[in-house]
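Hi all, posting the design record for the shared folder.

TITLE: backbone redesign
STEP: 1 of 1
STRUCTURE INPUT:
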């Protein structure tokens, strides 16, 4: 390890210790790759869920390897969303467009046709949308917890049809390809958020990965 690498490691350890001092012992510490050139730590109230961005295309490249939404609508699907379900999903997307609202769609998983439709609409700016999938597709508990926090009634997959439930909303969501943080929801507990910076996007992602691996 050269001197530059040792100095980088010292800085990462220092920011990790700063995060530990800001929140109670045992509180979660979340690190995201940011385009900032300096590491920054924020203490907030939130809940970490094992829900991940279904595609890196939903990240906000100008800021970092994550996506944030304030006051988003939340639609939870207790199953896998497929292209066949697009007609049943469109009214919710159209309503979001009409109300200039952002919408997060969380499901166990997405097939290529459904994911492509959502990514294209996101990239074109047609609707502010992000797709969240389960880190473990066999464990539906995080979807049910998200629905509970958002006060939403989960939509149900019935073959080629989607029985759409009621949409909910949340104060803020921070979403990455590793996890999702529900910020400011009722009952949320303290946690520390580290924006891991770097001279390049790759360096920021590497710093965030190192911080995530520290105990």
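Okay, here is what came back for every position:
SEQUENCE:
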């Amino acid at each position: 390890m050269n001197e530059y690498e040792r100095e980088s490691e010292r800085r990462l350890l220092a920011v990790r210790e700063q995060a530990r001092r800001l929140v109670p012992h045992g509180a979660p510490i979340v690190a995201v790759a940011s385009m900032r050139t300096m590491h920054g730590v924020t203490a907030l109230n939130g809940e970490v869920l094992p829900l991940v961005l279904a595609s890196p295309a939903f990240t906000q490249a100008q800021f970092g390897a994550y996506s944030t939404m304030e006051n988003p609508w939340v639609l939870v699907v207790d199953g896998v969303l497929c292209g066949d379900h697009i007609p049943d999903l469109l009214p919710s997307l159209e309503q979001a467009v009409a109300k200039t609202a952002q919408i997060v769609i969380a499901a166990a998983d997405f097939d290529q046709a459904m994911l492509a439709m959502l990514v294209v609409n996101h990239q074109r700016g047609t609707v502010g949308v992000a797709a969240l999938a389960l880190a473990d597709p066999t464990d539906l508990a995080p979807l049910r917890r998200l629905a509970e926090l958002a006060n939403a009634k989960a939509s149900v997959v019935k073959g080629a049809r989607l029985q759409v439930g009621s949409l909910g909303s949340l104060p803020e969501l921070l979403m990455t390809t590793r996890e999702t943080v529900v910020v400011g929801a009722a009952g949320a507990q303290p946690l520390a958020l580290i924006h891991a910076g770097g001279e390049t996007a790759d360096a920021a992602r590497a710093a965030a990965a190192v911080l995530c691996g520290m105990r």
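COMMENT: The radius of gyration is 18 Å.
Let me know if anyone wants the other runs.
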